[in-house]
Specification:
single chain; alpha/beta; seven-stranded parallel sheet; 12 helices; two-stranded antiparallel sheet; 11% strand; 334 residues; globular; 9 strands
Length: 334
């Protein structure tokens, strides 16, 4: 697979979001299935794996997803870029804990779960307004100097917050919501990140599965632990209203002999040199299909035509990339 850079770190140009093995899409697979799926993704050429300390803690226990990923990648740990995330619990901050000490404790727990003595990319999962982002950046710089992390990132942030943090300790990557239906990042995040060499790592790059074309107005989501129940584009009325986007994708998919999901990923790969999407799925076939998007190439003319067609579409439903945290952490958000 082709390679890209998250500032200083080389990764496969498509990564793997591992959340679905513990949380977010209803019933999870058997542990061994999840481990084999991650290993097959690596065998295919994926070298970038994403998890978080909270994935799985709602129905299972803290670190559930990290432990699965850690076991899966143990034999090739040194050959991949491993990313995980932490968040501040309000009580940690309100009790007067030092920012560095709080982050260090979270990091040590994640390293134990992941069976590693360093993390390649360590994200602040959501901004907490009780903690100045500049203080977080200083602590991350210290962790980098100590060799415990190679780089750090921010998730679901504004351009203003990113710039403030980047001035203190250079940011390696921003993990924000970005796909054909959610393009807020094109205004402030991408221009700054391209200029500074910061990677942009879109979560939900296939719009929670909508852009695959496999979700219809008749699709029933699990009532237990399925984030798709609150994704605006996946309401019955918005699935129908956004059909023109799928029609565009289906046209290019037919021409390219690809899936619509692959076309949506190829679109962003063509558009930005620093974008590294991390499609997530709990299904092995979908995982390999998504990774296969690196082989789907759009010509400049095809891209311009596709972009013009998308720009002419009115999008129904919007999640946005604003800092949703304020005080506390939305535990059910990816």
């Amino acid at each position: 697979m082709n390679k890209r850079y998250l500032r200083q770190m080389e990764v496969s140009e498509i990564g793997m979001g591992c959340m679905g093995f513990s949380h977010g899409y209803g019933k999870i697979p058997e542990r061994e299935y999840s481990i084999r799926a991650i290993q097959e993704a690596y065998a295919y050429g994926c070298t970038f794996f994403d998890t978080a300390e909270v994935y799985g803690d709602v129905l299972y226990y803290p670190g559930h997803n990290e432990q699965i990923v850690g076991e899966a990648v143990a034999d090739f740990r040194k050959d991949i870029v491993l990313a995980t995330k932490f968040h501040f619990r309000n009580e940690e901050v309100e009790n007067g804990g030092a920012v560095y000490d709080i982050i260090r404790k979270h990091l040590e727990n994640s390293m134990k779960n992941l069976r590693t003595d360093y993390i390649d990319l360590y994200y602040l999962h959501r901004v907490n307004t009780l903690v100045p982002v500049e203080d977080v950046a200083q602590a991350m710089g210290r962790l980098i100097s100590e060799g415990l992390i190679r780089g750090w990132g921010l998730s679901q942030v504004s351009g203003e917050t990113l710039k403030a943090a980047d001035k203190i300790t250079p940011v390696s990557a921003v993990q924000n919501l970005y796909n054909m239906l959610e393009r807020d990042c094109e205004t402030d995040i991408f221009p700054y990140c391209v200029e500074q060499g910061i990677g942009v790592v879109p979560f939900s790059p296939i719009a929670s599965g909508f852009l695959s074309g496999k979700i219809t107005v008749d699709t029933q989501f699990s009532l237990v632990d399925d984030v798709r129940n609150w994704v605006p584009q996946l309401s019955r009325e918005n699935i129908a209203a956004n059909q023109p986007v799928l029609d565009i994708l289906n046209h290019y998919a037919a021409e390219k002999g690809a899936s619509s999901a692959q076309i949506s990923l190829a679109w962003m790969l063509h558009k930005y040199p620093n974008v590294v999407p991390i499609p997530g799925s709990k299904n092995r076939e979908r995982i390999l299909e998504n990774l296969g998007a690196w082989e789907v190439t759009l010509t400049d003319a095809e891209f311009e035509q596709l972009e013009a067609a998308l720009n002419a579409c009115q999008i129904h439903g919007h999640r946005g990339h604003v800092e949703t945290e304020q005080k506390g952490f939305g535990r059910r958000q990816p």
